[in-house]
Amino acid sequence: MKILENYNLKNHNTLGVDCYCDQFAQISSLSDLESLPKDIKITEMLIMGTGSNILFTEDLNRFVVQFKPRKYITVVDNLVVAWAGTPWNDLVTWAINKNLGGIENLALIPGLVGAAPFQNIGAYGVELQDSLVWVEVYNWHTGLYHRLSNEECMFSYRHSIFKYHDQPWIISRIGLDLRSDHPVNISYQPLQDKFAGLSQTPSYKKVAQAVTEIRQSKLPDPYQVHNAGSFFKNPVIDPQIAQRIQRRHKDLPLFETKHCPDQKTSAAWLLEQCGFKGHREGDAGFYDKHALILVNHGSASGQELLKMSKMAKRAVKIKFGIKLEEEVRVL
Ligand SMILES: Cc1cc2nc3c(=O)[nH]c(=O)nc-3n(C[C@H](O)[C@H](O)[C@H](O)COP(=O)(O)OP(=O)(O)OC[C@H]3O[C@@H](n4cnc5c(N)ncnc54)[C@H](O)[C@@H]3O)c2cc1C
User: Fold this and answer.
1) Which entry of 153, 219, 281, 311 is 20 to 30 Å from 171 by CA?
2) What residues does 323 pair with on adjacent strands?
3) Are residues 297 and 206 in the same domain?
4) Atom of ligand 1 at shortest distance to CA of 117?
5) Based on the domain organization, do 152 and 200 belong to the same domain?
6) Ligand 1 touching residue 84 (CB < 6 A)
7) Can you tell me the distance from the alpha carbon of 205 to that of 103, in angstroms, rounded to the nearest whole number?
8) CA 266, 267, 268, 269 torsion-angle sign
9) 298 phi and psi, to 5 degrees?
10) Whose CA is nearest to atom 34 of ligand 1?
């Protein structure tokens, strides 16, 4: 494993931001993991996949470990086991080609398998936690592996135990329960519209294809237009606040949440109401077809993107009294 000094991460984050780190190493195997220095403090380490959910705002005095994309998937005891460096969409494609259901709604989410439990990736009514059985972590201080069950991962909406950053853990593999009799979930309106009039239940492959088409029509390809997907989470709001807002904005979108009795609203809608859809200052802005996507149109710095995100957050707080929370990890 080669360690590079003073390395620029510009090509390793989909927002395309310049950011130098003290040291950088790419890993592609368990033996690479095991050869990492054991004395690095938690605050001095950063584990990365493809950087599709990170905004760098300053240079990092850290040792950055990046999983080199490399597909490795096996079946052990009826569970699908995937190496952290496996591109997430390769795992989805592998599963649907074997007619195994459970993650087809998560097609085309960028990034690697190792990052998926970090924020409990989700889309179109499905989350990773719905099919995940365990997460294997490597403790770089002790050199030991440890398995966390689904419950131990403390999953919730875009959240997990891994976000606390208080353990020297690197996610190395995950085990998923994917089955050929897994019920198809087309409850989300855009999927219902796609399959309207179909008498049979669509196959996992058809669902993944439909999700892919919908995503491609709405979201910019991060390798063409620099972005990190949804910049903020959809906020969960108290029913009284929802009622108050609805008095002035009858079209406030509200939807049920899996994780608590309160309802969620659309962060994209809130940002659009505040005029941020397509808003741009220099090279920092929000996508013109989707207000939730912070975009680097060229050579915006991390600080400029951060400033734009803070401006949007403040505007939503003033207009609606709602505090947006970042989905993207800001460093
Ligand atoms: C266009 C676009 C659309 C997107 N759509 C969705 C979506 O629909 N749903 C969704 O949930 N997300 C979505 N995302 C966000 C992103 O793709 C996911 O969060 C993805 O899981 C990040 O993968 P990554 O490999 O790029 O991780 P990175 O961005 O490199 O890392 C993300 C976080 O995970 C940690 N991490 C990464 N690998 C490991 C590891 N092996 N061990 C421990 N920690 C690790 C990092 O430290 C970091 O905090 C989208 C992003 C883009 C650009």
Assistant:
1) 219
2) none
3) no
4) 21
5) yes
6) yes
7) 11
8) positive
9) -175, -95
10) 115
Shared domain check, 181 and 298: no
Catalytic annotation on 35?
Answer: no
Q: What is the mean pLDDT of each run of 10 residues along the chain (331 residues)?
A: 96 97 96 95 97 98 97 96 98 97 98 97 96 98 97 95 94 98 93 90 96 94 95 92 89 80 89 96 96 96 98 96 96 97
The domain of 169 spans 69-218
User: Of 44, 67, 90, which marks where a domain is finished?
Assistant: 67
Q: What percent of the chain is helix, strand and coil (3-state, nearest 5)?
A: 30, 30, 45
Determine whether the shortest distance from the Cβ of 119 to ligand 1 is under 6 A: yes
- Pairing type for strands 60-67 and 20-27 reads parallel
Looking at this protein, which amino acid is placed at residue 25? A
Catalytic residue among 160, 230, 301, 309: 230
Is the same domain home to 186 and 86? yes
**What tokens were used for 3?**
């360690």
The total number of structural domains in the chain stands at 3
